[in-house]
Amino acid sequence: MDTSRHTVAVPEKAVPLDAWSKHPWTGGVQVDELPPLEAVEVQTRNTRYQIVVVDGRNGEVLVTGGRFFPVPTRVRVNGCTLGGSCLKWRGVYPGFLMELQFGAEVVITTRVRSVERRPAAESDSRPH
Predict the structure, then answer these.
(1) pTM (2 d.p.)
(2) Domain residues of the chain, as ranges?
(3) Using one digit for the tens of pLDDT, what is the confidence trace for 40-62?
(4) Among residues 44, 51, 94, 108, which one has the fewest Cβ atoms lying within 10 Å of its Cβ?
(5) How many separate helices (H) and strands (E) can be counted in the chain?
């Protein structure tokens, strides 16, 4: 198979720290830069998560989705990772795994496929 035409946006194996720090970090969000009550929809390979920012600076959100969070649950978004020791602090980006902390428990999602911001005004006006 000719792999010269195949491009992988986010490598699945170990990445040198230099490549990690130079990654463009587009298509996602930095939770610590979002205002309170802003909503974000995150679609992973397996689950759609609804996230509402409580205190973005500290990564505190209400998350709903999947088997771990069937009801709105207050968690901290630690960031995103490729499964190793590097973590993009408070970031949620396509191609990466999302790391959520609930008390002492850490939940790592499947790969994020998409991230969509929904400003507070828009999320408040959506039908329930």
Answers:
(1) 0.77
(2) 24-125
(3) 999 999 999 999 999 999 999 99
(4) 108
(5) 2, 9
Q: What's the Cα-to-Cα distance from 96 to each of 7, 20, 39, 76, rounded to whole Å?
A: 16, 12, 20, 17
Which two structure tokens, joined as six digits, stand for 35? 């205002």
pLDDT, the chain, mean:
84
d(CA 31, CA 53): 7
Task: Kindly provide the residue ranges of all beta strands, DSSP E only, lying in 27-104, ordered along the sequence.
Answer: 29-30, 39-44, 48-55, 60-65, 69-81, 87-89, 91-92, 97-102
Judged by DSSP in three states, 38 sits in coil
